[in-house]
């Protein structure tokens, strides 16, 4: 059984008189352990695809199975629970809570999961150590760099041990050197078995993944497995 | 998510913007302070007034004869005797007759309030009572003889005899519009001007004098038949039954049963009236204060709406991380309630302080009941819930994708 199975997914918006079909019969299967890049120009449907895969958005017709479970028809609350348990989000602009410490930020998904305070702290500290910020637990987001903020966001994404990490332009706000550092963390996580789906418009960043899907006009135009992904270099 | 977590988040959000939170609370603070101060002062004033009425005459009955009554129906000294003898719960009966005239000596001439009564006047009158400081009150014998004797208040004595310590035995002239008589001062009561607790000017205060009602008849042609009587009964509980039996007795004696010529009033009904007027007043001001609270609530709603807009991205992120609609609703609702409740607590403290100060100035005791405290805190919370619900629902219903995209 695949980790993610999407069949004949159609998504359309109505804006005024205009009916816009954003995804036209999309089929996609993602196996556990993949590192997938979703590419495409603006309006190609890649962001919509990401939102649907991340259970932030619903779709008109089709089927979506996530880890043996049919998540096609879920209520808002059920989708919130699945997001909380199975999906780790990483955003372009980090989206950390400005007044919380790094530890509290990383612990936040576990608050919504109803995990006790002690376990939250232990697991958040472990996740921050994993991304190399184990010595900054009590810092505030405004005290660290952009690259470090994105690492905190990654720690937050993995802390609930999700089925898949959804990263939406995770390097979009970072310089190229920092971008590679972030990609390296994704590669490390992926090597340890975590499935990663990343939306990006930077072809060179996509080269670090194992499979690239290109969207155009609401359909998957190309689906290409990379035999030799780039290896993100060790930090100097 | 647990309540404790929501609570922590709400406190963090409130303390992140201290000045704004305080300004938002200000409406609630003022509203609650006003409500608690008015309730405390109102309760204090009611207690004070009730106490005064109890002092004055919780055991007093005022008996009056209708002006439709003919001469035959007017009361006589014999009637008063009969009332007192008929019921041992009646402790004092006296005509309640007051004449505005003048009191003069060879050198002084002052305005005077002249009271006419039986010797029981010392128990029925609040002004010329039995607190004799020199000499004595007039007696039944004085009354029977229409003796030209008088009791004078201490301040009156000081006005008429500025240089004399003891005025007992002195003679003064009492003058009405029609006639004048000479009376001998036989007693001095304590100062009457002091009973007004500084509410009147001492220099313009008239001389208070009490004389037997029989003597009053020599001074005033109107003091013939008795039309106003004040009675004292042993206890508050006797008031109603004694009032009824006395009216029946008088109707029988004058053979006017059923004509409703005699009316017995007591201070209990007056007290009820004062209570209800005061209660109306307190409720009215409390309602005005409640309007202030509602305005404060609108302030809370306004700032919560601003907060929801400002934190749209935060809300989107929280939803992406797994916050349910309910989690977000509770977080923002709790923030509004805590904001209102903190405002309520500050307002409560301020209100108690204001009440104490005002009560001190008015010379009453502010009464702050725990019911009032509970009421205002509940009310503050209710304001928070009511005005926080709309912004909280707005936050909870945000579409996560649009919220995440919000710049």
UniProtKB/TrEMBL annotation, chain A:
PROSITE patterns: ABC_TRANSPORTER_1, ABC_TRANSPORTER_2. GO terms for cellular component: membrane protein complex; plasma membrane. Residues 4-236 form the ABC transporter domain. InterPro entries: AAA+_ATPase, ABC_transporter-like_ATP-bd, ABC_transporter-like_CS, ABC_transpr_LolD-like, MacB-like_ATP-bd, P-loop_NTPase. Pfam families: ABC_tran. Keywords: Amino-acid transport, ATP-binding, Nucleotide-binding, Transport. One of its GO terms (biological process) is amino acid transport. It comes from the Bacteria. SUPFAM superfamilies: P-loop containing nucleoside triphosphate hydrolases. GO terms for molecular function: ATP binding; ATP hydrolysis activity; transmembrane transporter activity. Gene3D superfamilies: P-loop containing nucleotide triphosphate hydrolases. PANTHER family: ABC TRANSPORTER ABCH.1 (PTHR24220:SF86), IMPORT ATP-BINDING PROTEIN (PTHR24220). This is ABC transporter. It comes from Schleiferilactobacillus harbinensis DSM 16991. The lineage of its organism: Bacteria, Bacillati, Bacillota, Bacilli, Lactobacillales.
Automatic annotation (TrEMBL), chain B:
It is found in: Cell membrane. The chain crosses the membrane at residues 21-42, 280-308, 329-362, 368-390. GO terms for cellular component: plasma membrane. InterPro entries: ABC3_permease_C (IPR003838), MacB_PCD (IPR025857), Macrolide_Exporter_MacB (IPR050250). Residues 287-400 form the ABC3 transporter permease C-terminal domain. One of its GO terms (molecular function) is transmembrane transporter activity. Residues 21-245 form the MacB-like periplasmic core domain. It comes from the Bacteria. The keyword Membrane applies. It is a multi-pass membrane protein. Its main location: membrane. Keywords: Cell membrane, Membrane, Transmembrane, Transmembrane helix. PANTHER family: ABC TRANSPORTER PERMEASE YTRF, MEMBRANE COMPONENT OF TRANSPORTER-RELATED. Belongs to the ABC-4 integral membrane protein family. This is ABC transporter, permease protein. It comes from Schleiferilactobacillus harbinensis DSM 16991.
């Amino acid at each position: 059984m695949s980790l993610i199975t999407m069949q004949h997914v159609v998504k359309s918006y109505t804006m005024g008189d205009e009916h816009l079909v954003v995804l036209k019969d999309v089929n996609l299967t993602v196996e556990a352990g993949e590192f997938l890049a979703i590419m495409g120009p603006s309006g190609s449907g890649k962001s919509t695809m990401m939102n649907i895969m991340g259970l932030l958005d619903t779709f008109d017709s089709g089927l979506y199975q996530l880890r043996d479970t049919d998540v096609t028809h879920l209520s808002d609350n059920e989708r919130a629970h699945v997001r909380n348990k199975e999906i780790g989000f990483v955003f372009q602009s980090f989206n950390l809570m400005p007044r919380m410490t790094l530890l509290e930020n990383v612990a936040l998904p576990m608050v919504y999961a109803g995990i006790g305070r002690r376990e939250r702290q232990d697991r958040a500290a472990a996740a921050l150590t994993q991304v190399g910020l184990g010595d900054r637990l009590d810092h505030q987001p405004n005290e660290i760099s952009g690259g470090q903020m994105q690492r905190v966001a990654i720690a937050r994404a993995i802390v609930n041990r999700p089925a898949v990490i959804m990263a939406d332009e995770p390097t979009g706000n970072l310089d190229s050197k920092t971008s590679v550092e972030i990609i390296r963390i994704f590669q490390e996580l992926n090597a340890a078995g975590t499935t990663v789906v990343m939306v990006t418009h930077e072809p060179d960043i996509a080269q670090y993944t194992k499979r690239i899907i290109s969207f155009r006009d609401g359909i998957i135009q190309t689906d290409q497995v990379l035999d030799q992904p780039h290896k993100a270099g060790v930090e100097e | 998510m647990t309540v404790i977590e929501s609570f922590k988040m709400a406190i963090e959000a409130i303390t992140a913007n201290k000045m704004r939170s305080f300004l938002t609370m200000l409406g609630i603070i003022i509203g609650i302070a006003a409500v608690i101060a008015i309730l405390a002062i109102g309760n204090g004033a009611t207690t004070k007034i009730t106490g005064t009425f109890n002092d004055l005459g919780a055991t007093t009955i005022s008996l009056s004869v209708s002006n439709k009554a003919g001469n035959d129906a007017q009361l006589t000294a014999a009637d008063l005797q009969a009332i007192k003898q008929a019921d041992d719960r009646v402790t004092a009966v006296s005509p309640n007759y007051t004449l505005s005239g003048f009191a003069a000596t060879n050198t002084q001439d002052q305005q005077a309030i002249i009271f006419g009564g039986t010797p029981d006047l010392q128990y029925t009158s609040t002004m010329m009572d039995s607190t004799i400081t020199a000499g004595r009150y007039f007696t039944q014998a004085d009354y029977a003889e229409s003796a030209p004797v008088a009791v004078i208040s201490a301040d009156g004595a000081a006005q008429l005899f500025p240089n004399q310590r003891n005025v007992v035995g002195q003679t003064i002239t009492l003058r009405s519009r029609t006639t004048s008589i000479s009376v001998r001062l036989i007693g001095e009561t304590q100062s009457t001007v002091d009973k007004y607790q500084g509410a009147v000017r001492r220099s313009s205060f008239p001389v208070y004098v009490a004389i037997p009602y029989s003597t009053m008849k020599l001074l005033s042609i109107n003091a013939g038949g008795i039309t106003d009587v004040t009675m004292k009964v042993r206890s508050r509980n006797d008031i109603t039954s004694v009032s009824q039996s006395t009216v029946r007795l008088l109707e029988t004696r004058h053979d006017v049963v059923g004509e409703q010529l005699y009316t017995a009033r007591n201070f209990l009904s007056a007290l009820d009236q004062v209570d209800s007027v005061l209660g109306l007043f307190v409720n009215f001001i409390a309602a005005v204060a409640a309007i202030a609270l509602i305005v404060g609530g609108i302030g809370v709603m306004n700032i919560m709406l601003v907060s929801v807009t400002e934190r749209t991205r935060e809300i989107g992120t929280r939803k992406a991380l797994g916050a349910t609609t309910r989690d977000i609703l509770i977080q923002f609702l709790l923030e509004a309630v805590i904001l209102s409740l903190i405002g309520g607590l500050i307002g409560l403290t301020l209100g108690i302080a204001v009440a104490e100060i005002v009560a001190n100035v008015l010379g009453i005791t502010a009464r702050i009941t725990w019911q009032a405290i509970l009421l205002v805190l509940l009310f503050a919370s209710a304001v928070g819930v009511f005005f926080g619900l709309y912004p909280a629902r707005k936050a909870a219903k945000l579409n996560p994708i649009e919220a995440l995209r919000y710049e």
